[in-house]
Design goal:
Blueprint lengths: L6 E9 L2 E10 L4 E6 L8 H7 L7 E11 L5 E5 L1 H17 L9 H5 L5 E5 L1 H73 L6 H16 L2 H19 L6 H21 L3 H21 L4
Parallel strand pairs: 3-4
Antiparallel strand pairs: 1-2, 2-4, 5-6
Helix pairs in contact: 4-5, 4-6, 4-8, 6-7, 7-8
Length: 294
């Protein structure tokens, strides 16, 4: 069954650590391209988040956004940079002596403005807890996204199936008209020869030779057979459970286009030419739809 590449999924998770919200959005891309937006406190999990989506998605630009409202704990440990604080205090004392100020006026507010005074270290004891929460929430969001993909894919498949039926019916009209092209050419050729060389016995031989050459030139039986084979293949791919069939469908559609172009080039019949245009128009609409299939 087909899956759409455009979808959205969202999931939430409440835990003592806080309120977690993960949103996943998928849009059309030829290859898998994952972008993750995480709170700075959870940045160490970016690579793992990208790995966790692989069983669910094979193509598309995937945007993952993680929002967390921390409550009782945070996933890191705040460590003071004591050596830096001592040097700052010593520098302040020396400055106070030089300016004849009271060194007791050294306030902690001055330290807060100093970059690097505090270090944020990973809390490895809490990592497993946050990893479990993130994975569980992401998988829930991905399941919602896949559900939307399946729903949209079913609509795309119904549309493509309808267009395939139109194409098959139009090709049957072309197939029905094809055998009469040679007969019409024979009648036209015989009429012209009779106008130029009336009553000549050798006219029949000339007509037979011309018809043989013309019949070989306009024969579209092979193209029609291959066209039907490609239609069947296209339907089989749509019904399969394989992942990432969008590229294969696009390739088969290209082959259908090539065959119908050859049919159009070989035929001089006006009705066949119109039917070819109708088929090419449907194929182009299908190509637009296929671009949104995973």
């Amino acid at each position: 069954m087909l899956k759409s590449m455009t979808a959205y999924g969202r999931a939430t998770f409440n835990a003592p650590q806080g309120h977690f919200v993960i949103e996943v959005q998928s849009v059309n891309r030829k290859f898998l391209d994952v972008h993750v937006v995480l709170p700075p406190e959870l940045s160490q999990f970016e690579i793992e988040l990208k790995k966790w989506i692989l069983p669910y998605l094979t193509r598309g630009q995937i945007n993952i956004k993680v929002n967390v409202s921390f409550e009782n704990t945070v996933p890191f440990i705040v460590q003071p940079n004591i050596p830096l604080a001592r040097q700052l205090k010593a520098s302040w004392t020396k400055m106070a002596e030089e300016l004849q100020m009271d060194a007791k006026d050294f306030f902690l507010e001055l330290l807060v403005k100093q970059e690097g005074l505090f270090r944020l270290e990973e809390n490895q004891e809490q990592d497993e807890t946050y990893r479990h929460i993130l994975k569980q929430t992401l998988e829930a969001a991905l399941k919602a996204l896949v559900g939307m993909k399946n729903q949209e894919g079913a609509l795309l498949q119904a549309d493509l199936t309808s267009r395939l039926e139109k194409i098959r019916h139009t090709m049957q009209l072309i197939e029905h008209k094809a055998p009469y092209a040679t007969q019409r050419y024979r009648e036209k050729l015989q009429q012209r020869l009779e106008e130029i060389l009336p009553g000549q016995i050798e006219n029949e031989d000339r007509i037979l030779r011309e018809i043989a050459l013309f019949a070989e030139k306009i024969d579209i039986a092979e193209e029609i057979t291959r066209f039907y084979c490609h239609l069947i293949h296209f339907e089989e791919i749509m019904q399969s459970e394989a992942h990432g069939v969008g590229k294969t469908l696009d390739f088969v559609l290209h082959e259908l286009g090539r065959e119908i172009n050859t049919v159009g080039n070989k035929s001089s019949d006006l009705e066949v030419a119109r039917a070819v245009i109708d088929i090419k128009s449907e194929l182009e609409r299908m190509r637009e739809q296929i671009q949104n299939i995973e």
